[in-house]
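Suppose you are handed only two things: the residues of a chain and a line of SMILES describing nicotinamide-adenine-dinucleotide. What would the bound structure be? This form records exactly that question and the answer produced for it, so the two can be stored side by side and reused later without any lookup.

QUESTION INPUTS
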Amino acid sequence: MSVVSVGGDYDVVIEAGCSARVADVVGDGVQRALVVHPDSMRPLGDKVTESLRDKGIDAYAVSVPDAEDAKTAVVAADLWALLGQHGFTRSDVVVGVGGGTVTDLAGFVAATWLRGVPVVQVPTTLLGMVDAAVGGKTGINTAEGKNLVGSFHPPRAVLCDVDVLSTLPRADYVAGLAEIIKAGFIVDPVILDLVAEDPEAATRPDGPHTLELIERAIAVKAEVVSQDLKESSLREILNYGHTFGHAIEHVEHYRRRHGEAVSIGMVFAAELACAAGVLARDVVDRHREALTSVGLPTAYESGRWAELETAMRRDKKTRGSLLRFVVLEDIARPVRLEGPTEDQLTTAYAALSH
Ligand SMILES: NC(=O)c1ccc[n+]([C@@H]2O[C@H](COP(=O)([O-])OP(=O)(O)OC[C@H]3O[C@@H](n4cnc5c(N)ncnc54)[C@H](O)[C@@H]3O)[C@@H](O)[C@H]2O)c1
Ligand SMILES: O=C(O)C(=O)C[C@@H](O)[C@H](O)[C@H](O)COP(=O)(O)O
Ligand SMILES: [Zn+2]
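ANSWER OUTPUT
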């Protein structure tokens, strides 16, 4: 077992089988629990619910639509209705059992019910474990864009039961590697070395470095969010690749995985930094090598610039009419690039073309 403390406020437990211990981490005085899961994780959702009932807690399991279809105001309202009908108070708890979409939704519902009740996160995807369930960013999408409504609401605990990764489809596992590789580029280059050592092994939950990769990515996230929970400055580095990545997700109506979009977004950010004279070409190449080595996409179709740029303007980092990007000066040296020229932007976009 390993445990990463997030600024001394809560723990992220990484251990095979730890999802059986939810009742031990929900806290004292809990009488009711709402266990939120997608249909794909119904067996685990039911198991967690039973384990809470065994400890005398009135636990209710609720299945939500899969993937981004979970992150809507309609689904959130359905969950608020359940909490109301079952008389949830501020000493009760919401439990998210699923990928990043479910932990984002469960966290948001917990953040907003009675202006905030505790949430325990049980991420079941690689991406959920290394990123989404940690750090307290919660949210849902609106018709206008990704994660436009949300709140900062740190969890009471995060349980990463690495056993459950064995059922995760390979493409979803690989999508999670994008956020791990992101952590490598922005803070911890050892991650990049571990992936480069045996990229095929990195794509398997039973790979020799899987636990170390998970632990290192969580440690990066924990360190950053414990210094800047509300993203007033440092936390923006976790958004590396996301300005363009979220725009891709939006224009494709969420049919592409988040991790895949972030992968392309990181190459865009690297090309942009290169076009702006901030980043050397060999580091841009290193992005393509690392990401393609594990099967992540790095190219994007041409002819969609106008709609992508419109979507990027809704990014939370935008200030007034100024687009702002996280870029690298070098590996592990993230900086802000404010107001890149149209020429730099379109040069970066052209470099992504098939
Ligand atoms: N809050 C944050 O800080 C943060 C960070 C990163 C990403 N995110 C969000 O996370 C979301 C992406 O998360 P994701 O990649 O986990 O996608 P996801 O939640 O859609 O899960 C991917 C797929 O895997 C299935 N699944 C989940 N666990 C499984 C398992 N163990 N076995 C079999 N199938 C399983 C799900 O049903 C789904 O179809 C995006 O909405 C993104 O915006 C949030
Ligand atoms: O935790 C953060 O901060 C991140 O930016 C992590 C990202 O991987 C994640 O996708 C996050 O949800 C993006 O947030 P947003 O504020 O750009 O919507
Ligand atoms: Zn992300």
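WHAT STANDS OUT: The domain at 170-350 is CATH 1.20.1090.10 (Dehydroquinate synthase-like, alpha domain). The chain has two domains: 2-167, 170-350.
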